[in-house]
Amino acid sequence: MDTSKLRKRMPVSTLFDPRIVGPAIGQAFVKLNPATLIKNPVIFVLEVVTALVTVLLVRDLVQHHADTGFTFQIVLWLWFTVLFANFAEAVAEGRGKAQADNLRKTRTETRAKRILMPDNYEVYEGVPAEDLQAGDLVVCEAGDIIPGDGDVIEGIASVNEAAITGESAPVIRESGGDRSAVTGGTTVISDRVVIRITSSPGSSFLDRMIKLVEGAERQKTPNEIALNILLIGLTIVFVFATATIPSYATYAGGAVSIVILVALFVTLIPTTIGALLSAIGIAGMDRLVRFNVLSMSGRAVEAAGDVDTLLLDKTGTVTFGDRQATEIIAVPGVSESEAAAAALLASDSDETAEGRSIITMTQDKYKVHRQTAPAGAKFIQFSATTRLSGVDIGDRKLRKGAIDSVLKFAREQAGGDVPEPPNFRAAVDKIARSGGTPLGLVEGSRILGVIHLKDVVKPDVKDRFAALRRMGIKTVMITGDNPVTAASIASEAGVDDFIAQATPEDKLRYIRKEQENGRLIAMCGDGTNDAPALAQADVGVAMQAGTQAAREAGNMVDLDSDPTKLIEVVEIGKQLLMTRGALTTFSIANDVAKYFAIIPAIFLAFYPKLAVLNVMQLTTPQSAILSAIIFNALIIIALIPLALKGVAYRPIGAGPLLRRNLLVYGLGGIVLPFIGIKAIDLAVNALHLV
């Protein structure tokens, strides 16, 4: 997955970070508790049979039986297998706990200014933040740490949310609208606000982040439960298969020891995926956290991987969200350089994004040099009333703005009607049809031309939408623009569909319609009016900068409030499913090679013709069994990095993905154990371990 476009991540600990590995080793032993291990049925059964052969080993040692050295090695590596499985889960949990520790450091002993009388915001008392209850009113002034989650009900302030988002740039929080929600642990850096607390002690956004990140609230997802049921079924089948083997041996006039039967059973059951399944799920949520996206459940991450339709807001996701000047269309009789020079002068003091873009365009495209404004120049700032801005330099009056406002200004300066120059109206209509915004440009009563402002489509989105389309994901752009403008931008961006002049009801109606057709929907939003759609969507990503209602409705929260992250969320979800599928394929495939090692070793003495199955030419039956058991343990450790990092994401369809997994992890899962078991067999015999 191309994650370069995600500008900021939380720090991530490396796999071999001693701060994680050390505690994980200890946790691997703690997790030997059967009450804990029973949550992983395959490894629990492995522990039970390992405990059984351990008891048999002790009996043999007491009775001085022969071959206790071989039995001891089998028992040792079986315990290693259990510990390695526990270690894989503990490492994944340890990475989450390291993230949680970083979040805990943001906490301080905060004092709150709790208002005593609801009708008088000037009278308050100092209390510990832990004593606040939902509904309490608090005052926060410059330098104060916001004591809990809440909504601003009076005032406006700049707030530093770096403790939560990692972004040092302050954000504005004000009463009313979609920017009223504040988060406990963030800092007011200017002005004064009154906040109504919405969270109870221990249930703030930061508290929930810590619990989710460290895995305290992680529950198995439906896919995990289904896979666990499959693994339990396979384990039960192999219990009965192993139980029938002594009768075959007896029929042939021989016997098979319980230790050998346990070794066979362990290599038959899917221990590899059983050991890594939990780690894969934990790591999937951890990857989201590293990209500053908090998932409220593993199910949401999984659903992201199965999404069929993406609902994307146009502004900020498909386009940059601020209109950029792209060209000046001069009317006949006016040169481009003259019009560009006038536009530059009219925009010289314009601090809006549009004004800055006009200055940049005139300098870069039309090579107009910016000069210091003459003494006595009077700059006219844009206002919603006049919808004009510009400059007066002596008798020159330059204005730019909305077309009707510019024409009105020209008529006022002329003292009567001003005929529109040829092609002026055609240029205005052409820009409007293309999805742009036309700005008129005049000098006094003389119309100079039209400036084309365009909400520029992000340069990489078309390729990304094409990649999603190859995966069978439909992209739908949501915009408040008129249908003509929406169609133009949709065509340029390469989305599959669009909803123009969209209302909250339109979004909700579209989501329900798609879900009725069996499709899974993902969307993002930040306003209270987005809450119903966020709650209805299978994956609802709420912006941290948005309202409390939106954050409560969604099942994910983007701490950076970046709507483009919705695409990455889907990719991470798909990576989780791909990783689980790939390792399940590998686990089942690598059992095949172990059959070729163990089966001939057990039955060769009774059925000599089975020698043809000894394709690896393993030295002795004992070394074959021990080599298979050692490989079975070591492969878990070898696959932990892949389980935590995830299989490389590729935007391909389900068919090609299945073929690739079968080739790489299916065929690889068959070939690698042949090589590994043979190498271990050579080492075992070279070291005279059997």
Keywords:
690 residues; alpha+beta; seven-stranded mixed sheet; 24 helices; disordered N terminus
Describe the structure.
With 690 residues, the chain is of the alpha+beta class. The protein contains 24 helices and 20 strands. Helix 3 (41-62) packs antiparallel against helix 9. The radius of gyration is 34 Å and the shape is elongated.
Shape: elongated
| Count of alpha and pi helical runs | 24
Please state the oligomeric state of the protein chains shown. Answer: single chain
Helical percentage? 40-55%
Structural class: alpha+beta
The biggest sheet amounts to:
7 strands, antiparallel
Topology readout:
Blueprint: H1 18-30, H2 34-37, H3 41-62, H4 68-104, E1 111-117, E2 120-128, E3 137-141, E4 150-160, H5 162-165, E5 171-174, E6 181-182, E7 187-197, H6 205-213, H7 222-243, H8 245-251, H9 258-268, H10 271-290, E8 293-295, H11 298-305, E9 309-313, H12 314-318, E10 319-330, H13 336-346, H14 353-364, E11 378-380, E12 388-393, E13 396-401, H15 403-414, H16 424-433, E14 437-443, E15 446-457, H17 461-470, E16 474-478, H18 483-493, E17 497-499, H19 504-516, E18 521-525, H20 531-536, E19 539-543, H21 548-553, E20 556-558, H22 565-603, H23 621-645, H24 654-686
Parallel strand pairs: 9-16, 9-18, 16-17, 18-19, 19-20
Antiparallel strand pairs: 1-2, 1-3, 3-7, 4-5, 4-6, 4-7, 8-20, 10-15, 11-12, 12-13, 13-14, 14-15
Helix pairs in contact: 1-4, 3-4, 3-9, 4-6, 4-10, 4-23, 7-9, 9-22, 9-23, 10-22, 10-23, 11-22, 13-14, 22-23, 22-24, 23-24
How is this structure best summarized?
The chain has 690 residues and is of the alpha+beta class. It has 24 helices and 20 strands. The strands form three sheets. Strands 1, 2, 3, 4, 5, 6 and 7 form a seven-stranded antiparallel beta sheet that branches. A seven-stranded mixed beta sheet has the order 8-20-19-18-9-16-17, with helices on both faces. A six-stranded antiparallel beta sheet has the order 10-15-14-13-12-11, with helices on both faces.
